Amino acid sequence: MISFLDRYEIISNTQFGFRKNMGTETALLNYIEFLKSELTNYKYIISVFLDLSKAFDVIDHKILKMKLEYYGFRGKFLEFLMSFIKDRKYFVHINGINSDTKSVNIGVPQGSTLGPLLFLIYINDMIYCSNLFFSNTICR
After folding, report:
1. 58-78, pLDDT tens digit by residue?
2. Which residue in 84, 101, 111, 119 has the most C-beta neighbors within 10 A?
3. For residue 90, what are the contacts with CB-CB under 8 A and spacing of at least 6?
4. DSSP labels for 113-139?
5. CA 113, CA 128: separation in Å to the nearest integer?
């Protein structure tokens, strides 16, 4: 899956999380270079920072499936990916006692290899919302 995403350059080059040889430091260096360039040219800068804590917990499966299809995932592999995230169940075990089993109908599994990749695909189109928009304008 990673090689497919890389080969077809599906994940934006402005996405630094969960990527090989990229991370917070790379994002910060790119941001500083952007600021220096814009300020040198006397441009205005507005920055918005989002806290995406618990982001893996709120991924809508239907939207994720549409995005996977859009990026070219089809057939058995798409079925596998969806079976990995759908109809998951959990229970809590404390002092030898198990809670009732509950279903999870949203989100992607944390601690898995696929979770971060699915999250990147889910938020990949956020970069199209990076320009200044007026209140009556929506992002693509």
Report:
1. 999 999 999 999 999 999 999
2. 119
3. 101, 102, 104
4. SHHHHHHHHHHGGGGGG-S---TT---
5. 26
